[in-house]
C-alpha cells in the first residue's frame, strides 16, 4: 500500500463518521513528523549550512587576502583542507549522508584549488579546461558517493565545460548544435536515471533530481528550437526537432502514467513558447502579437485547468 497522504485523510473525513480526535490521531501518526524526524532534519540542515558557509568563507578568504598571501601558502592551505575533509570522510563513525555532504564540500574545494592554481600561474581560471579538469578529478567521488546533490554539481560542471568549449574553442559550432548536444546529454542522463530507478530497487534516485534534469533538458530543447526557427538553415535543426518531439511525447506519456503534474506542465509550457516563437517568425505586425497574446492566455488556461482536474481526480 502506498503511503497515506494528507489529502487522503481529508477525503475520508468528508465521507465517513470519523471524529475530530480520530482525524487528529491519523494526522499525527501518518502525516506529522515526530521528534526523531525533526532531529534528523535539523542535523542535516545545520550540517549542510555549516559546510556551505565554510566553503564560502574559504573562497572569500582567498579573494580578500589574495595579494598578501604567498603562492605556496595559497596552495598549501587549500590542499590541506581537501586532505582533511577527505580523511574525515573515511572515518567509520559518521553516517553515509554526512559523509556524502562532506564529500560534496570537498568537491567544491577541488574547484577552488584549480582556480587558485590558475590565478597564480595564469592558466585561465575561466577557461573550459579548468571546468574539464575539475570534472575529471571529482568523477571518482561522484561515483563512489552516489549522492544526488553531488551528481547535480557534476552535471553542472559537464554542461558548463561544454558551453565554454563552444565559446572558446569550437568556433565553427552553431548555436543549434550546442543546444542539441546539451539536450541530448541531459535527456540521455534523465532516461538512464529513470531506468535505474525503475529496475534497480536498491538505488534510490530522488524525485527532485529527475525533475531538475527534465527541466534542464526541456530548457535546452526550447532554446535550441527557437534558435532554429529564426535560423532555419542550420543542418542540426531537424535532429533537434525530431529528438525533442520524441522526448516530449514520451514525457507526456510518462506524466500521464505516473500522474505527475510536473511533466504535464513543463512540456506544454515549452510547446507554448515554441509555438509563440513560430508565430513571431511568420509575422511581426501588431495583429500577430495580439493573436499570440490570445493564444498564450487560452493555452495557459487550458493547461492549468487540466492540471487542476488531474489533481482533483
UniProtKB/TrEMBL annotation:
InterPro entries: DUF2157. Keywords: Membrane, Transmembrane, Transmembrane helix. Residues 40-151 form the DUF2157 domain. Coiled coil: none annotated. The chain crosses the membrane at residues 44-66, 72-94, 101-121, 127-144, 176-196, 208-231, 237-255, 262-282, 288-308. This is Predicted membrane protein. It comes from Olivibacter domesticus.
Amino acid at each position: 500500500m502506498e503511503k497515506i497522504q494528507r489529502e487522503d485523510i481529508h477525503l475520508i473525513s468528508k465521507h465517513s463518521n470519523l471524529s475530530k480526535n480520530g482525524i487528529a490521531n491519523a494526522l499525527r501518526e501518518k502525516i506529522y513528523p515526530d521528534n526523531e524526524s525533526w532531529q534528523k532534519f535539523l542535523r542535516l540542515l545545520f550540517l549542510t549550512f555549516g559546510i556551505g558557509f565554510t566553503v564560502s568563507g574559504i573562497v572569500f578568504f582567498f579573494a580578500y587576502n589574495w595579494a598578501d598571501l604567498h603562492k605556496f601558502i595559497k596552495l598549501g592551505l587549500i590542499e590541506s583542507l581537501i586532505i582533511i575533509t577527505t580523511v574525515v570522510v573515511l572515518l567509520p563513525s559518521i553516517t553515509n549522508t554526512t559523509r556524502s555532504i562532506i564529500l560534496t564540500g570537498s568537491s567544491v574545494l577541488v574547484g577552488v584549488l584549480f582556480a587558485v592554481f590558475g590565478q597564480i600561474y595564469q592558466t585561465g581560471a575561466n577557461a573550459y579546461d579548468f571546468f574539464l579538469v575539475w570534472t575529471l578529478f571529482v568523477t571518482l567521488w561522484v561515483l563512489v558517493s552516489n549522492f544526488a546533490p553531488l551528481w547535480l554539481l557534476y552535471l553542472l560542471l559537464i554542461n558548463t565545460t561544454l558551453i565554454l568549449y563552444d565559446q572558446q574553442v569550437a568556433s565553427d559550432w552553431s548555436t543549434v548544435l550546442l543546444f542539441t548536444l546539451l539536450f541530448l546529454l541531459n535527456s540521455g542522463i534523465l532516461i538512464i536515471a529513470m531506468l535505474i530507478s525503475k529496475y534497480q530497487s536498491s538505488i534510490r534516485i530522488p524525485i527532485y533530481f529527475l525533475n531538475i534534469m527534465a527541466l534542464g533538458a526541456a530548457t535546452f530543447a526550447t532554446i535550441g528550437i527557437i534558435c532554429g526557427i529564426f535560423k532555419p538553415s542550420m543542418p542540426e535543426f531537424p535532429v533537434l526537432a525530431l529528438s525533442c518531439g520524441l522526448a516530449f511525447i514520451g514525457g507526456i506519456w510518462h506524466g500521464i502514467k505516473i500522474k505527475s503534474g510536473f511533466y504535464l506542465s513543463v512540456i506544454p509550457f515549452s510547446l507554448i513558447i515554441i509555438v509563440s516563437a513560430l508565430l513571431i517568425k511568420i509575422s511581426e505586425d501588431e495583429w500577430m502579437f495580439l493573436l499570440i497574446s490570445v493564444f498564450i492566455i487560452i493555452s495557459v488556461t487550458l493547461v492549468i485547468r487540466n492540471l487542476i482536474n488531474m489533481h482533483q481526480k
